[in-house]
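pinning this so it doesn't scroll away 📌
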Amino acid sequence: MSLFARSLPITLASILLAVVSLSGCNSSASEQAADQPVSVRVAEVTGGQVVEIPLRFSGIVRAAQRATLTFQVSGTLKERPVELGQTVKAGDVLASVYNPALEPARDSAAARLDELKTQYDQAQREWERSSRLHQRGVVSEQNLEQIAARRDSLRASMATARASLAEATRLLEESVLKAPFAGQVEALLVERDEFVAAGQPVVRLSSPLGREVEVRVPAHLLGHVRLGQELPVWLVQDRNREPATGTVVEIAQGSSIRGELHPVLVSLPPNSLSAGEPVEVGIAPVKESAVTVPLLAVMRDSTGTSVFRVENSVAYKVPVEVDRVIGERVMIHAGALNPGDQVVYAGMTRLVDGDTVEVR
């Protein structure tokens, strides 16, 4: 046997051993590659609500608690012990008027009540005497009923006289104007010795505890404000100053009058702005925009169109419904994805649902 013939089995055995070894190495390498995350690139889903640039509406800062005080009776302004800008407490006298008919009316009502009370007391005593005589048979039933009727009539007249006295007393008290709350006198609208009609403004009072501003906005903007919403408030005299933050406390309802502006009341934080300062309140309209993804992120297969959404370094296949293409992005129907989600636009050809990914 030749040397070549003897070496052939050894060579074949070596080759088979090498093939088996290479197969084992390739299998280990494939398993190791499967465990490694897939490198991808992602982009953000855009759309949803878009807040536009705030529209500014002008207003004047005013006291949240304020009152224009009037008399309920007419007369001549007799006293006005307060001055413009003076600070007063609740119950302090601000002004008083003189009406010559008020005190006599009260005194007359009081006298009438005393007269009726005397007559009623006499009628009551007479009824008591007649009741005892009626039991003895001296006074008839008819006479006793007449005495009781007169007594009851006097009781009713006393109630009427008491109400007249209360009315006359209140009218006399209305001739003195008192502060309903602690505050500052903003305006004195009537001078001493001038005639004041009932309901005529006399003093304007405001409290320093709170500030607010009222702005008027078109009807289409009422849907962009809500109670409790915070709005920026700029001081007109210093536009470089940081805006204060106001809170919406009242919103008017829309009406059918064309072009009418509707008031929106904004409460201001304490010690931020002073009454009388001109300000501007910003209202930013909010609009709904289309949800879009990059064109490269959309895949098409036998089941339809879909994208890979990345959550916690894991790619999930999400079906989407394409509306139309806008440049390099695709508009999709809302619901499948939310603005801010991350979707894969590069490297998805190697992905399957549930793969671990590495974002680069």
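📌 and the second one:
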Amino acid sequence: MQDKPYIVIMAGGIGSRFWPYSRNSRPKQFLDILGTGRSLLQMTYDRFREIAEPSQFMVVTNQGYLDLVREQLPELESSQVLSEPLRKNTATCIAYAAYKIHALDPEAKLIVTPADHLILQEKRFILTMNRAIQASETEGRLITIGIKPNRPETGYGYIQYLEGDNGNPALKVKTFTEKPSIKLAKTFLDSGDFVWNSGIFVWKAKSLLDAFTENLPDIAEIFEEGKSHFGKPTEQDFINRAYTMVKNVSIDYGIMEKSDKVYVILGDFGWSDLGSWHSLHELREKDENNNVVEANALLYDTKDCYIKMDSDKLVVIEGLENYLINESENVLLICKLGGERKFRDFVANAKKKGEDFV
């Protein structure tokens, strides 16, 4: 078991771009969005059970979702579900898990993954993970997984890499670019040396802690103090204090974009970050007019839409193109399918109408 990696699942997001189906009380990672009978969190756990034992998982989540994680992953001990008192972005989330795991096992290797991604070709995914674990053995290396792009997507970050030699799968990273314009995304696609940033990382715990010390020393200093608390009754009190002192910064900005020890392993395994209704529309089965229909519906002159309604209601739609129609509990949403940039406004204004709407 020593050779197997620890799996850190980040499950604290609120999933606002899937509102109103995703709510503050039950965000998208806890929903069976794909109709498989398992939530996205459970599917992520199932996927990584191929390469890790249940005792090697850590789920980092907001304190409000502790019960949901325990309900959905009863295989985990309570000490494996890490409670964040505040949302402080991915660097802090990962630091908490990494420093705790390092205290338990200084030789540990870590895979860090979001809880809400879709992987269609799981055998190819596991092969890629095994390559990444092997590449992370080199001291100091920070490994990220890059996805070969098939379109000029503006909603993802991009990684540019340098060509390797001797068939080595670990390629040196040259640049990171966050969510480019469509023109730049097309240039990236044409160049052939850019991949999508999946947000999946592989490290030796020691390599990551060294990177924190070098690039985010304030976070490193705070979590170093946690070594005497991890696994003890004082752990949560320490974390509650620590989270008030650290800054809000992503792991990409805080470490990966600054370090000269970052390598990418290329992956091609049917990946989607399931970041929006639009991305889900691309994946779901469609009718002859490119509509995803998860409803009891009558459609007339309607195409490129996503309709998700309770089946006990009949919905009749005429003359719509590229729209999302979703009724979830007490909210009916009708908007442009690709309008996820407006969802923050939708959610913020709905909250003013009442907490029950978000």
